[in-house]
Amino acid sequence: MLKYIGKRLLMLIPVLLGVTVIVFTLMYITPGDPVDALLGDSATAEAREMLREQLGLNGGYFERLFRYIGNLLHGDMGISYATKQPVFTRLLETFPNTFKLALLGVTFSVVFGLTVGTISAVKQYSIFDYVFTFICMIGNAMSSFWLGLLLLLTFCLKLRWFPASGFSSPKHWILPAFTVGFHSAANIARMTRSSMLEVIRADYITTARAKGQKELAIVIKHALKNALIPVVTTIGMQFGALIGGSVLVESIFVVPGVGKMMVDSIKSRDYPVVQGGVLAIAFFFCIVNLIVDVLYAYIDPRIKAQYK
Amino acid sequence: MTETTVVNAAPEQETYKKRGQGKEIWRRFRRSKSAMLGLFILLTLIFLAIFAGVLTPYDPTEPDVPMRLMKPFVDSAHILGTDELGRDIFTRLCYGARISLAVGLIAVSISLVGGITLGSLAGYYGGTLDNVIMRFVDILMAIPSILLNISIVAAMGQGLQNVMIAIGISSMPGYCRIMRASILSLKDQEFIEASKAAGASDFHIIVHHIIPNCLAPLIVQATLRVGGSILACASLSFIGVGIVPPTPEWGAMLSTGRDFLRDAPHLTTIPGITIMLAVLCMNFIGDGLRDALDPKLKN
């Protein structure tokens, strides 16, 4: 198992390097000179050259790319044009919030998705099944930003149950986490339902019943555990969508996270911050995928056996 | 004489067979109520998009400030109300349908063409080329699609065309993987070998023998992605990096409605429902097509 994790960690290096190159290239070809934006047209040629050097903007594409990667290895992601703070410091400030939001969102979506999916499958064609299938369909088609606005309108502005902004208490996190997780919850529920339906008619379930097992034990221990394998893949895939969704949700609920920071930075053309944000989230996403794959091996003994 | 009859007979047989297959798929598709509902919504949206100019007398971008923020279902002249500049919301939705449908269609076409090409090359030739292409796909997949969209649009500049390209590129990896997997399962089959033995070129084999055999999963994925692309475009406009105002794009409409959330919630609710319906109908059609194209569910 350790060998497997080690191998996957090694495979992560070229992917992360590739992500860095792609993101760097995209920002490199972005039109507009940041020096113009910072100094204005009236600055002298020397001042411009000095700032260019300071920001690491001198030199050709490859020179700058290698310098960027070299700096990155030292934890230096450049300096924000707008606030003059190092990007890394800003990421350290904002990332915990995004991480917390994503974690809360994924917890909600897994709990909701697994519960609803399992009940829908066990009580197939019941009222519960129809109602939740409908909700999941809606959840799948609903954009997270619209859901966020609807929740904001209903629960913060009209009913005043939740505060609309600020993040001092756990209450502040409920609506953003629900918004971020709802789409994924719907997908996980759909996947759990169809996966459970395949499993629940298997012979070993009948055997378990014939042995006189309690229904709850059959559903959880025998059926759900076997149905989980495709569900874990879905959860892993949803994580990416969820982190992406948090970019939108953060700007609705004014969560001081990486997503909001990036959206604000795009508007002010503060590209080192955008670059740093995309990289941080892509790194995080790769690590999550690795964890999902390890979990996968843990749940499925067939995969585990390959790496013993 | 005999020769000409043989030559003529072959295409006739082929069209008969193709029509038969299409009819069979349509028969199975029709059985799904949700798929038919999806088709109905889609046709309505297409109708609104095409006849937007005839259906409403208003201009989608011309402000009419005295009429601003009218509530929906109050005045029959503005059935869905007006926005913060007095523009008729129904008119803007109809014109917006043009944009959303175009984005859905063109972005998916870009990703289909790109994905099929890369996937075919990777799967058919294997080796180093496969490795290079698939690592590139892995890298693209490591960036959450909305971030990739944002970065591409930032690099190329805002606007409809660039949004389509960005969404097309970021959804390419999915098709590429499907295509590669299908090719790997097909390329050692006998009919491919037979075609090779008959002297067909690689291009001919891929286009005439392999692609038609893996169309079903690609069509399903493409239909589902149309909804995803519409949503992605709306998301980009919502955060202000997509389509530039005053273009009547649904996501942009929702975004401007945010400032009037308390007093005029219809500015966000109506475009929100429209986006949801558009995505929902594509999901219904995609699910219906998946069942209709699956030979296992034939009866």
Explained architecture:
Chain A is an all-alpha fold and 308 residues long. Chain A has a domain at 93-307: MetI-like (MetI-like fold, Orthogonal Bundle), CATH 1.10.3720. Chain A contains 13 helices and no strands. In chain A, helix 5 (87-122) packs across helix 8 (171-200). The N and C termini of chain A lie close together (6 Å). The mean pLDDT of chain A is 84. The longest helix of chain B has 37 residues, at 89-125. Chain B has helices at 2-30, 33-50, 52-55, 89-125, 127-142, 145-156, 160-170, 172-186, 190-197, 202-210, 215-238, 250-257, 266-293. By secondary structure, chain B is mainly α. The two termini of chain B are 43 Å apart. Mean pLDDT of chain B is 85; it is low at 1-10. At the A-B interface, helix 1, helix 6, helix 7, helix 10 and helix 11 of A face helix 5, helix 6, helix 11, helix 12 and helix 13 of B.
Topology summary:
The complex is a heterodimer of chains A (308) and B (299).
Chain A: H1 2-29, H2 34-39, H3 45-54, H4 61-73, H5 87-122, H6 127-141, H7 144-158, H8 171-200, H9 203-210, H10 215-253, H11 258-267, H12 271-299, H13 301-306
Chain B: H1 2-30, H2 33-50, H3 52-55, H4 89-125, H5 127-142, H6 145-156, H7 160-170, H8 172-186, H9 190-197, H10 202-210, H11 215-238, H12 250-257, H13 266-293
Helix pairs in contact in B: 1-13, 2-4, 2-13, 4-5, 4-7, 4-8, 4-11, 5-8, 6-7, 7-11, 8-11, 9-10, 11-12, 11-13, 12-13
Task: Give the gist of this structure.
The complex is a heterodimer of chains A (308) and B (299). By secondary structure, chain A is mainly α. Chain A has helices spanning 2-29, 34-39, 45-54, 61-73, 87-122, 127-141, 144-158, 171-200, 203-210, 215-253, 258-267, 271-299, 301-306.
